[in-house]
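TASK: fixed-backbone design
INPUT:
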């Protein structure tokens, strides 16, 4: 993704978020009690705006940990996937700009949250995307191979709500957002996230369960890619 994308994309929409833009941080979370608290505290310390955690049908203490850390929490009665959780969050807030953060981040700083939000709030970009650098080699390498899958972004709330199939995209949500951005010729900017990484699924759930969850994630991503290919045909 490059900041060289069209500078004429949606100029009136971009101008609408300058000067008086408000921002909120949205964190979809499913069984992330171990890490959600630190992510919330970091987001609040950035003073970008309120933090809304969407507890996507968790069966652990995710909601309690998020509440204790100071977030507003929206609890969904059953798991709808990452895309559905982000849709619920975007509907629940009224802010001009939303920052999207994963619930299992390690090493994120308040300054990095501000770096994601700033260009969109100032009208300099339609979307920013975080890129891991210098963290754990596995997550950094994965980001280099598939940077389009990074969940750390900032964009206009109206733009997120306009993404086709957002609610049913599950783990394919980043593909869906990226494809919508490409079609609408958004001005896009990558933001380096030095020292940031994520807890791997195999570490959180054990090897076998983690592999099964990862396979489900790849299935959702493949569906999103196939849907994109079909729309281009």
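OUTPUT:
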């Amino acid at each position: 993704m490059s900041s060289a994308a069209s500078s004429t994309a949606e100029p009136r929409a971009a101008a609408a978020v300058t000067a008086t833009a408000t921002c909120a941080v949205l964190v979809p979370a499913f069984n992330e009690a171990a890490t959600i608290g630190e992510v919330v505290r970091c987001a609040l310390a950035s003073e970008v705006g309120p933090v809304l955690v969407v507890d996507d049908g968790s069966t652990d203490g995710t909601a309690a940990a998020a509440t204790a850390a100071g977030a507003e929490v929206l609890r969904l009665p059953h798991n709808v996937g990452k895309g559905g959780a982000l849709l619920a969050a975007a509907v629940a807030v009224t802010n001009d700009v939303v920052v999207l953060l994963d619930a299992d981040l390690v090493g994120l700083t308040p300054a990095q949250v501000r770096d994601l939000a700033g260009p969109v709030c100032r009208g300099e970009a339609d979307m920013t995307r975080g890129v891991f650098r210098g963290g754990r080699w596995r997550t950094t390498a994965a980001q280099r191979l598939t940077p389009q899958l990074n969940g750390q972004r900032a964009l206009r709330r109206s733009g997120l709500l306009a993404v086709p199939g957002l609610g049913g995209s599950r783990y394919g949500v980043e593909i869906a957002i990226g494809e919508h951005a490409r079609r609408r010729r958004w001005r896009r900017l990558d933001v380096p996230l030095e020292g940031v990484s994520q807890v791997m699924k195999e570490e959180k759930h054990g090897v076998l369960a983690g592999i099964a969850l990862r396979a489900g994630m790849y299935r959702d991503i493949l569906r999103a890619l196939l849907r994109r290919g079909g729309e281009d045909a």
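COMMENT: Residues 1-18 have pLDDT under 50 and may be disordered.
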